Amino acid sequence: MSNQVNGYVQVEINGSQAVAHIYPAKEGGLPVNGLEVDEFLLNHGITTYDKGEFHKQLASPTESVFPLGFCDGIEFSESMSIKVSLDKMRVTCRFMPPSTNGPRMNVKDIMGELNKRGVVFGIDQDAILAYLNAPCYCTDYVFAEGIQPVIGRDAKIEYFFNTNPSLKPKHNEDGSVDYRDLNTICGVKEGDLLARLTPEDRGKPGKNVCGADIPTRSVKSKHLEFGQNIRISDDRTEIFAAVTGHVSLVNDKVFVSDVYEVPADVDNSVGNINYDGNVHVRGNVRGGFSIVAKGDVIVDGVVEDALIQAGGQIIVKRGIHGMRRGILDAKGNVIVQFIENAKVFAGGYIETGSIIYSEVNAAEDIIVIDRKGFIAGGMVRAGGKVESMTIGSEMGAMTHIEVGMAPEKKERYTQLHKTISSLTKKINKLTPVIKTYNDFVESGKALDQKNMLYLNKLMSELRSTKQMLQECRVEFNALHQELINSKHAKVVVRRDIHSGVLITISDLSMTMKDKRSYCQFEKKNGEIIITNL
Q: What are the angstrom distances between the C-alpha of 155 and each of 202, 240, 251?
């Protein structure tokens, strides 16, 4: 324990005269604070002393006395000042000595002063007793402290299988792509641990010295979500595979499936398929049929003018002859040998050997780099890059390549632009009508009830339209910044790009005037530039 003692002053009362006994600091304590002593003496009506000389003597390193002059002759008691921190988590007390014959404070006195200031919690009785037994004046004592809240922890789920399996096909040394060699199945055995939940820790509220509760931050709870063929532990914190099969994570829900297998074609003998897990078709998907799956869809053969929707990935090992009606729509990636006269949508990337007169959309990249990979005709849009061996054709097939923003966002961007224009026109139409009514009222004339109701309706409509316009502009501006600042958008040509191809990167467009080879297109410094590979 430190032996430091701060300097202080004690007053002796002799009739109507007061004398200051000055006790300097010891063992490295703080010297007497002249301003603090002046305030202390003022509170007891002692004001006639020479402050300049008194402060000089306070700086002396030895004990001394100093005549203070006239006083009322009444002895005074020990006094305590209380400082409560701004956050009400700590109470610091400081004492000044009584006059030489004045009374000292006791526990009851100190507790009474604390209670007057509203301090009712976290009071340190031992600290109070320690002070009373060995008082040090002009010294800070911590007599109460609140309890800080214990911060909680969000719930966490740990998965024990690959939640994002690689679905990229194998590229052979000769440049061809093996669409049959795909590592897409995340296999599990019966009894395998699939996921573990660590529940949230809600923490513990604190309390300040005034007794008020201090809430801890809110935490996020989670629970394990799963489909069939899964067993959960008694405490609901672990899930296990109940069968040997395939596991996947779709929208934070764990699925285990034997995989719904179609041994031949999807045709009249099978009908449309709607399945909660994964679907594997060993043959073809004939025209007019549909497959809707929450997991992955794998087709070993060809897809005709059919519909395939997947919550996961779509893999078509032989390609799609869409006949302008076929659709592949995946929340994840799409891998297909070729795309012809079809619409393809992917929430991830698309990899294929060729695209012919099709509408192809991917949130990420579109890769067309088989040995003879080409894009001819149609619209190809990617949030990232488009990479192909050849783009366009010598016959001048109208081909549009667009990169820089996910297609869904680009459509929303275009829709917002139209909505903003429409709302602005509406505001411009409403404003002069309302102004006419206001001018009429300001001229001192009164509106009848029918016109007043109509005016109120117009003003309400104007307010709601302005609010909607503001919200649209905020969303539009955010998308616009994303569009113009896209850094990874580019078009890569591994062999030839023909004249007539329209290339759009973010907010810029250019049409190829001449054939170019082995080049790439990027947006830099506000323009589309072409560089050689």
A: 9, 19, 17
At 347 the pLDDT is 92
User: At which of 23, 43, 70 does a domain end?
Assistant: 70
Q: Which two tokens stand for residue 302?
A: 């060809």
* Residue at 443: amino acid letter: S
pLDDT along the chain (533 residues), means of 10: 82 94 91 93 92 92 93 93 95 96 95 95 95 94 96 94 69 67 65 95 94 91 91 95 83 83 87 85 94 91 96 94 96 95 95 96 91 92 94 90 81 87 91 86 82 88 91 84 73 95 91 94 89 91
Q: Is 266 exposed, middle or buried (0-12, 13-18, 19+ CB in 10 A)?
A: buried
C-alpha R_g of the chain: 41
CB 335 within 8 A of CB 318: no
Going through 220-365 in order, the beta strands assigned E by DSSP cover 230-232, 238-241, 245-250, 253-257, 260-262, 273-275, 279-281, 290-293, 297-299, 307-310, 314-316, 320-330, 334-336, 339-346, 350-352, 354-362
Instruction: Verify that 113 and 227 share a domain, yes or no.
Output: no
CA-nearest of 388, 345, 335, 334 to 503 is: 388
Distance (Å, whole) CA 373 – CA 354: 5
Q: Is the alpha carbon torsion for 465, 470, 475, 481 positive or negative?
A: positive
Q: How far is CA 438 from CA 76, 226, 443, 449, 464, in A?
A: 74, 61, 9, 15, 19
| Segment 28-83, tens digit of pLDDT | 889 999 999 999 999 999 999 999 999 999 988 999 999 999 998 899 999 999 99
Domain end marker among 145, 180, 202: 145
492 & 346 share domain? yes
pTM higher than 0.90, yes or no? no
Spell 217-243 as b/e; 16+ CB within 10 A means b.
Answer: eeeeeeebbbbebbebeeeeebbbbbb
The answer to whether residues 81 and 94 touch, using CB atoms and an 8 Å cutoff, is yes
The first and second tokens of residue 366, run together, are 């579109």
Dump pLDDT digits (tens) for 204-257: 999 999 999 999 888 999 999 998 889 999 999 999 999 877 788 888 899 887
Strand partners, 221: none
Q: How many residues does the chain have?
A: 533
Round to the nearest angstrom and report the end-to-end CA distance of the chain.
Answer: 75
Give the domain range for residue 56: 8-70
Query: Same domain, yes or no, for 160 and 252?
Result: yes
Return phi, psi of residue 326, to 5°: -75, 140
